[in-house]
């Protein structure tokens, strides 16, 4: 070792970073209790609609093929963007784009399915691996991302 050489940095020691994990929960139309949930890792665009190329597929006559996107925005924040012809609603008001906050509920179309959005902070450690405050289900645990809504 050369005593005049700069000290080498240990590549395994990195500053922890915080990021958000999104959990979507389809609510029962009458009782507002959970019916099905999906968990998504940070930095993904989540599309919801009737088409089979969406991350969350909801078969309902009032839901568009590509109805809504939940996507990362500046920093560690997320936003909801309406893509559907029948609109996306929050607190009974039609939205085109809105920032996501933990516990918010959106409705697809004025009388369509309701989805609760949860945002959980996750610590990024070495190698960018996330460690949530509560254990997340393993990827692929959901037997189906399809949900029939009558």
Write a brief structural summary.
The chain is mainly β.
CATH topology name of the domain at 18-118, in short, is: Tumour Suppressor Smad4
H/E element order: EEEEEEEEEEEEE
Radius of gyration: 19 Å
Which geometry do the CA atoms define?
globular
What is the second-level CATH architecture of the domain at 18-118?
Sandwich
The CA-CA distance between the termini, in Å, is: 71 Å
Give the strand content: 35-45%
Poorly predicted runs of 5 or more residues: 6-15, 125-144
Q: Overall mean pLDDT score?
A: 78
CATH class of the domain at 18-118: Mainly Beta
Quaternary structure classification? single chain
**Count of DSSP-assigned helices:** 0
Class by SSE composition: mainly beta
What's the story with the biggest beta sheet?
7 strands, antiparallel
Helix residue percentage: under 10%
How many strands appear in the DSSP assignment?
13
Structure, described:
- With 150 residues, the protein is mainly beta.
- It has a domain at 18-118: Tumour Suppressor Smad4.
- Helices cover 0% and strands 45% of the residues.
- The chain has no helices and 13 strands.
- It has strands at 17-27, 34-40, 46-49, 56-59, 68-72, 78-82, 88-90, 93-95, 97-99, 104-108, 114-124, 130-132, 146-148.
- The strands form two sheets. Strands 1, 2, 7, 8, 10, 11 and 12 form a seven-stranded antiparallel beta sheet that branches. A six-stranded mixed beta sheet has the order 9-6-5-3-4-13, with no helix packed on it.
- Strand 7 and strand 8 (93-95) form a beta hairpin.
- The radius of gyration is 19 Å and the shape is globular.
- Mean pLDDT is 78; it is low at 6-15 and 125-144.
């Amino acid at each position: 070792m050369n005593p005049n050489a700069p000290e080498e940095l240990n590549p395994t020691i990195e500053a922890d970073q915080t990021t958000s994990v999104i959990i979507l929960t389809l609510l029962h139309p009458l009782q507002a209790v959970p019916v099905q949930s999906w968990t998504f890792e940070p930095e993904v665009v989540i599309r919801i609609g009737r088409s089979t190329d969406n991350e969350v597929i909801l078969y309902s006559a009032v839901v568009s093929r590509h109805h809504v996107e939940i996507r990362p925005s500046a920093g560690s924040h997320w936003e909801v963007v309406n893509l559907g012809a029948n609109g996306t609603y929050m607190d009974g008001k039609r939205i085109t784009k809105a920032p996501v906050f933990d516990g918010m509920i959106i409705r697809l179309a004025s009388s369509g399915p309701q989805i609760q959005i949860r945002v959980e902070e996750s610590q990024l450690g070495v190698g960018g691996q996330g460690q949530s405050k509560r254990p997340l289900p393993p990827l692929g645990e959901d037997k189906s991302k399809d949900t029939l809504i009558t």
